[in-house]
Amino acid sequence: MAADEQALQGILQQIETAWNRYDSVSLAAVFAEDANFIQIFGGQLDGRAAIEAAHRHIFETIYRGSHASFALRSIRFLRSDVAVVFARAQVKFQEGNVAREIETRPTLIVVKEQDKWQIVVFQNTKISEVPAAAQAAARLAT
């Protein structure tokens, strides 16, 4: 599976490189034609064309001049041709004159067809401060 793990790491690298070049076409190329993308604010993009168009728009507006980094956290192979990829991402950008940073935990479901891995589902969750009540509930669950 080492080659598959490298290929999956390569997908994250392609997303990062495409983001930092503001290349929505290259970013969308790692997605299946009928992929689903849930962005950090809960919006859903259906299909590679929608994913490309949305990223083209944010690269021209809110994330113009931004810098992203993606790090692989782990891979869980459900089958030899289906994997869940857990990552961590960080986007640095300017909002007016204020430097901003968003950290997220992307979760990708990827499938291998004809020896090529493609993302079929991408769920991006913004990391935010956990309310005290939720922290207490988490401690009780362990």
Summarize the entry for a quick read.
The protein has 142 residues and is α+β, with helices and mostly antiparallel strands. It has helices spanning 2-21, 24-28, 48-60, 132-141, and strands spanning 31-38, 44-46, 67-79, 82-95, 98-113, 116-126.
Task: Give a verbal description of the structure.
With 142 residues, the chain is α+β, with helices and mostly antiparallel strands. It has one domain (2-141): Roll (Nuclear Transport Factor 2, Chain: A), CATH 3.10.450. Helix content is 34%, strand content 46%. It is built from four helices and six strands. A six-stranded mixed sheet has the order 2-1-6-5-4-3. A hairpin with a 2-residue loop joins strand 4 (82-95) and strand 5. The longest helix is centred in the first third of the chain and has 20 residues, at 2-21. The radius of gyration is 16 Å and the shape is globular. The mean pLDDT is 94.
Q: What is the β-strand count?
A: 6
Number of domains: 1
- Fill in the CATH topology: Nuclear Transport Factor 2, Chain: A
For the record, the CATH class is Alpha Beta
Average pLDDT figure = 94
Number of helices: 4
Separation of termini? 33 Å
Provide the succession of SSEs.
HHEEHEEEEH
Radius of gyration: 16 Å
* Fraction in beta strands: over 45%
| Tertiary shape | globular
CATH architecture: Roll
Which strand order does the major sheet show? 2-1-6-5-4-3
**Low-confidence runs:** none
Question: Approximately how much helix is present in the residues?
Answer: 25-40%
Largest sheet descriptor:
6 strands, mixed
**Structural class category:** alpha+beta
